[in-house]
Amino acid sequence: SSIRRHTFVIKEASYTRLCSENKIMTVNGEFPGPTLYVYKGDTIVVDVINHSPHNITLHWHGVAQPRNPWSDGPEYITQCPIQPGRKFSQRVEFTFEEGTLWWHAHSEWTRATVHGAIVVYPKKGSTYPFPKPHAEVPIIFGEWWKNGVFETYKEFLGSGGDPNASDAITINGQPGNLFPCSKSDTFRLDVVRGKTYLLRLVNAVLQDMLFFAIADHQLTVVGTDGSYTKPFKSNYITISPGQTIDVLLEAKPSQQYYSSSSPMKQYYMAARVYSSNPGAVFDNTTATAILHYNDHQDWILHHSSQPTLKLPPLPSVNDTSASVAFTGRLRSLSTSSSDAEPVPKDVTTKLFLSLSINLQPCPNNYSCPPGGPFNGTVRIAASINNVSFVEPRSVDILSAYYNHINGVFRTDFPHKPKHPADYTGDRPFEGAATTHGTRVKVLGHNSAVEVVFQGTNLALGSDHPMHLHGMSFYVVGWGFGNFDERRDPKGYNLVDPPFVNTVAVPRNGWTAIRFRASNPGVWLMHCHLERHQTWGMQMVFIVKNGKGRKAQMLPPPPDMPPC
Length: 563
Ligand code: C2O
Ligand code: CU
Prior knowledge:
Cofactor: Cu cation
Keywords: Apoplast, Copper, Glycoprotein, Lignin degradation, Metal-binding, Oxidoreductase, Repeat, Secreted, Signal
CATH class of the largest domain: Mainly Beta
GO molecular function, one term: hydroquinone:oxygen oxidoreductase activity
Helix content: under 10%
Bound molecules: CU-O-CU linkage, copper (II) ion
Distance between the termini: 34 Å
Strand order of the largest sheet: 10-9-12-17-14-15
Largest sheet: 6 strands, mixed
EC number: 1.10.3.2
């Protein structure tokens, strides 16, 4: 197939939200950024030109990038940042994915406004596993900061504590009716009664998982993270940062809701924060958009004024059971035509990874900001198996690996936490102690990997949406409490587990995933809550080359950005 080129110019642009104007980072001046439309099997080249005053990199979230980590994008992991005035051409190949993915900046917190949807249509000549929808609409959840993203990030780094929450969640760039100065710009989806619409939902929010629902309408979930699921109906969805969910919306209000009154012309679509962290400060004001019926002449005749719009009932902000009840229903749709690796049955590499957020005492080599909430005595750190990840600065890990540069990273990432513990007690435990380092885990080519993520119940903890670059994985099991090595694997789903690139590990619980390390390269894995990532909840896998040319990493393109 032919290769299409796209030009992404990174530049600042002025946008007004919540009654004041702000300069934000954008691609081509758009917020949210442009949607990429491709067919499965396509390859595109994106010419990224940095006309902004800030460093940046771009990442194609959920795209495997077979043998080509050079285009993956995470700063200091697979490339150095694209500096102001420079350009980098990224090749993106859509081999395995079909459905909705997204692209975003992967440099400090610039992804806050530099992001957009990727729509991957079925291969030309093939069809969806459901009737063709009347129309398809990307719906991107984002955020707005009155203070600006760079300012918020700087304050966060300087405090040693939690970041300030954004001032609004946005739906396709708009906070909606309930916010000041926002009413006339609220995102509106116009629909024709009786038709079916495919909503491609993307959570691009920095710090929060979300609940989403549409008043008086049920949603049929058909896909997640660029792969199809067995369809199921739900009144709401849970979506974590990094995740995408595809739903079918039938433009027909449910009978059960309006039997007593007549159907209306407009309905609220609404999104609100879900957080399992009891101590968290968040803005739980509801972002809204409008579902608008185009063809409702009767209604206009019989009603002189629009009755007040109803908000859909959303689960409450800390409703963990509602969150896991939704996520636990996802099942992959196995089709014979699927190109995905089957669920690995015989695991060759097992990792048990404890995810923790804790207070780190000072002083040590990481000093604590004196002006912060803890008076310079402690700061918050995040770690995986007690290792808080440190990005190298002089060279990226991929180049260091490829060019055999010593001293950039160590290959002794621990398989287990230092002190196995009761992770679900309420008190800090030794197992949460943090050391800093750039340590990677090397995987043999095609090894069958199982990772068990263990969350904790510490005060600073929350669900962790863990995201893997380079390979999607199967979620074979999850549960609350401590993972039990003897009992829990017996309950694994090896038949139709969901095939995803991001999974929310519940607070006070565990999640088990499996994948085949079939993609040679350097691949980041991290929590997709931006503060946790910055605190160090990241690690890197190096997947070794296999035998034969087709199992080897490609050489770097000539225009890799210099450090
Ligand atoms: Cu959405 Cu490291 O990425
Ligand atoms: Cu996290």
